[in-house]
Amino acid sequence: MDSKAERRLFTLVLVAADLVLVNLSFLLAYWIRFSFAAPRGIPSITPYLYGLIPASAVFLLAFRNLGLYRPRRGRPGITDEFYSTMIASSLALLILLATTFFYRSFEYSRFVLMLGWGISVIFIGSSRVLLGRFEERMKARGIGTTPVLIVGTGAIARMIEERIHNHPGLGYHVIGFLDDDSGRVRNRVLGRIENLAPVCRERGVEMAIIALSTPTHDKLTDVVNRCLNGKVPFRVVSNLFEIVSGPLSVEEIDGVPVFGLKEEPLQGWNSFAKRLVDVSVSFIGLVIASPIFVFIGLLIKSTSPGPVFFTQERVGLGGRVFRMCKFRSMRVDAEAETGPVWTKGDDVRRTRVGYWLRRFSFDELPQFWCVLKGDMSLIGPRPERPVFVERFKQSVPRYIERHKVRPGLTGWAQVNGFRGNTAIDERTGCDLYYIDNWSLFFDLKIFVKTFFEFVFHKHAY
Question: How far is CA 1 from CA 9, 16, 143, 233, 288, in A?
């Protein structure tokens, strides 16, 4: 079985699982509703069984239109799976409610619809997590992957190959390279660029990745034409990513496409809406958490000498320095010998209570006050100390752009595993992605994912 057939088979398995679980969810909802509360007797199940046919169709169409059956590249997290399932199921439920509002040929329970929706989110979300892990293992063994040919052998081409190799869950595997200059991968060059079409046919290539380091217009046009003539799907990796790595917008000038950087979404009314949410949630959080503050304060004072709170300079919006407040989790003289350093997993500077405070992120609770004051936001890049900012802005591309927004209690980097002593370039990439793609729904998604990451993440020290 070829890779295309393997991917189609997995999609069919996914559709079949969704179909079975949608029907099972509504049947279970019917049983729960009328087994425990049916004062007028249990109604006939027959109309509900007939109703499952359009309900199943609506659910599958909603899942398809929201992209839940597209080939997945990478490993979606547990909350990602449930979030996408919830959105698609909610759309299907709204369509069903709107449709059944005008259909009164038999009495039906809207509670069954609502309960069936909730059960379907749990069932289908869980199923997709398990099937996703299974698919990832199959891809790691080369099953269902897309064979790709890289056109080019320079630094960009080698970077693409390395990322494909390091992330097998993307579902690609590199057959080899094509280039008129063999570069540094001489033993894996399958021919010159003029041989693109026959090499793709002979090797079963399903995609060409054009990754020429310094392509001229004529050279790039030639490669693209060869892909089109050979009916080979292709992607172009532009060397512009070394200069511009933000998201691009496409406009037209009398039919001619022109590219530029997208405007940042966190401006104007969007900025006001985000700040309104910050103030509201942080105020409520401070009120609700006030008893916890007292309890933690007593624990800290009774187990180690020193103040309850610990303040430290951090860099915020526009590069402005502010003092961030946390519950003290380390000795008072923690950096007397080492100077400014990141916390490690076996850090002996932590107090006994401090270990648990950091493990479950309770030491961060006082930062609700920083959010209320306007120094921070609930969601955003984590604020860094000035000494590290000076170091990183010299070595990490676009690092300084993190300060276009308020720093946050949690962020896209943290919920993707880049928390604590982790790779700064990967963390920065996540932060910039958040800034470029911000929305209130994106903030909500991060907020939900934060619970799982902060409770279970191994870098929480």
Answer: 10, 20, 10, 21, 58
